[in-house]
Specification:
By secondary structure, the chain is of the alpha/beta class. The chain contains seven helices and nine strands; from the N terminus they run βαβββαββαβαβααβα. The strands form two sheets. Strands 2-7-1-8-9 form a five-stranded parallel β-sheet, with helices on both faces. Helix 1 (21-28) crosses helix 7. The relative contact order is 0.22. The model has no long low-confidence stretch (mean pLDDT 95). The chain binds adenosine-5'-diphosphate and guanosine-5'-monophosphate. The site of guanosine-5'-monophosphate has 14 residues, from strand 5 and strand 6.
């Protein structure tokens, strides 16, 4: 009898901007045992220096993004900041899962809650928490990718987002990076081997 390949699972990593999602994902994705494949989101924001279309995001115009919504091409989307849309392409999730690999999503807090709700036990949702709001602001400042106004906007939103952490399966505090990476890896390992 032919063996049927098991579909991959979903790992959702959510947090306020600047908490270290990308940094943690870039580390854990190197662990081949976890068979993780990054879900590339669609966004209407401008690429940052060094970001590439089809690698970090699918960068698109607001009109193209709206067309993708109308055509039901996104499994979820949010206007994360005024005028800036982000969404998860259905094709990414299907492509990765059908290869038998696990999908890792870097998405905002509301998006994370929505995806968990849609996929239930097939998804593990992890909330990355900053040690404090002050540390979060410092990290955004030292990343140097956002204007002072955008940093204020992101920090102001963080309070509301942290209040949603109880809706996630697990919480990891990103104080020391190596500890947070290890903890996240262990959670994922237990989930995918379940
Ligand atoms: P996010 O993807 O959640 O927006 P990033 O991964 O870009 O956050 O991290 C924001 C900034 O904080 C980056 O400059 C990153 O190098 C730094 N950073 C991440 N984790 C830590 C940590 N544990 N300690 C110190 N700096 C960190
Ligand atoms: P950034 O502009 O810093 O790359 O991302 C801003 C926020 O948008 C982050 O919290 C990031 O996780 C979130 N984000 C990225 N892709 C998606 C997505 O596909 N859907 C949702 N809901 N949020 C996303």
């Amino acid at each position: 009898m032919p063996t049927v390949m098991k579909k991959g699972k979903l790992v959702i990593i959510s947090a306020p901007s600047g908490c270290g999602k990308s940094t943690i994902i870039n580390e854990i994705i190197k662990n081949c045992d976890l068979k993780l494949e990054f879900s590339i989101s669609a966004t209407t924001r401008e690429p940052r220096r060094g970001e590439k279309n089809g690698v970090n995001y699918y960068f698109m115009s607001v009109d193209d993004f709206k067309r993708a919504i109308e055509n039901d091409e996104l499994i979820e989307y949010e206007e994360v900041y005024p005028g800036r849309f982000y969404g998860t392409p259905r094709s990414e999730i299907e492509r990765i899962r059908n290869m038998g690999r696990n999908v890792i999503l870097d998405i905002d807090v509301m998006g994370g809650i929505n995806v968990k709700h849609k996929f239930g036990d097939e998804a593990l949702s992890i909330f990355i928490q900053p040690p404090s709001i002050d540390t979060l602001r410092q990290r955004l400042e030292s990343r140097g990718t956002e204007s002072p106004e955008a940093i204020t906007q992101r920090v102001e939103k963080a309070g509301f987002e942290i209040a949603q952490s109880g809706k996630f399966d697990k919480i990891v505090v990103n104080d020391r990076l190596d500890v947070a990476v290890k903890e996240t890896e262990e959670l994922i390992k237990a989930f995918i081997n379940d």
